[in-house]
Amino acid sequence: MSKHDITPGTPDADALAAEYVLHLLDPEERARVEALLDVDGAWRGRVADWSERLGLMADEIDPVTPPAHLRARVERLVAEDRAAGTDKPRARRSGWLQALLGGGVAATLAVLLLMVALPRIQPPDSGPLYAADVATADQALLVEAHYDPDAAQLTITRVAGSAPPGRDLQMWLLTEDQPPHSVGILPEDGTLSIPVIPFWGQRIPTGRFAISEEPPGGSTDEIGPTGTVLAVGEVQEI
Amino acid sequence: MPTTAEDVEVMILAVADQDRTAFLSLYDATSAKLFGVCLRVLKDRGDAEDVLQDVFIKIWRNADRYKANGLSPMTWLITVARNAAIDRVRTRKAPAEDTEAAERMPASGPTPEGAAIAASEARRIAACLGELEDNRADAVRGAYLDGQSYQDLADRFDVPLNTMRTWLRRSLMKLKECMSR
Prior knowledge:
Chain A: It holds the Pfam family RskA_C. Chain A is α+β, with helices and mostly antiparallel strands. Chain A has 7 helices and 9 strands; from the N terminus they run ααααααββββββαβββ. Chain B has helices at about 5-15, 20-40, 45-60, 75-90, 95-105, 110-115, 120-130, 135-145, 150-155, 160-180. Chain B is globular.
């Protein structure tokens, strides 16, 4: 096929960014791009460029005055929004994404990623526990992360899926104020337990975990994934 | 629209500070354009009214994140409206209706609109679309303006889905190349 082959692993980043802007990607591809947008400034630049470029076509759309009652309704809804105290949404990790998409797609993504329920038993005398299901939309890859602040211990269990041949799966912690932090290379099976220093421990509750496929031994880039981000999961208190 | 991009940006920034007067000014300045965007995608007035209402609530709530995405103000607003309208289409549409909707699409070429477009940038994309083969340009326009999916486009041009994707990707790259000349 052409250089615009769509086989996973050989994405033409620029074409993919254009398709993302056009809203042509299926939910799984879209989730992959959105994961990249959160961690990769070059991707945000690509998407912004295509948004401006293709947005020129909107020039030919004629304005149509909406009915007057709509203005009154929107005005009322906004006043109620303030009254309800929801006027200042809390800062979110996916701020950029939310800003661009207004939340709909991001919410869908969160639902897709959190489809598996988390039946867990909390010991009676412990503090809060945190967990994330890091999964592709089809659950072909599913990794559970579990964080116990009292024990300062992160436990990672691979439930389903494996790395592409000749590649490793690398797990990342995505935070609001730091570059992606490598948690480690996932073992082929079994559970990985990692001690967590307070600097990262205090960021886990508001963070997300991501998994990328990387060369053996992990990303060659000091500050983040070099391979494709396969899955992202939000941390939830359980 | 007499309002400039700078005016719109000032309004968005004021909306980010929860300024309701600025919000209504922004509504007055942009709602007709955004309603046009919704109508173009949805082709149904009732749906477009519903979506436009949601769009302005999203703008109200998300204006404080406008700065983070690096888009020009109208592009941001149009993106919010267009994505909301497309999300609505994709959830409401049964597969059987797709073909029908595609058939109702007027056959549109890049030339007639060209004359009406004032801005030189917009003329440039029209000219570059004009350099593409006719139905390739129509596919790009269908995807952007009408929010058509790959399946819609494959049905409309009666080609396999993967062929459609290859076509469109090549066309987009040609378009980019032409516009950077």
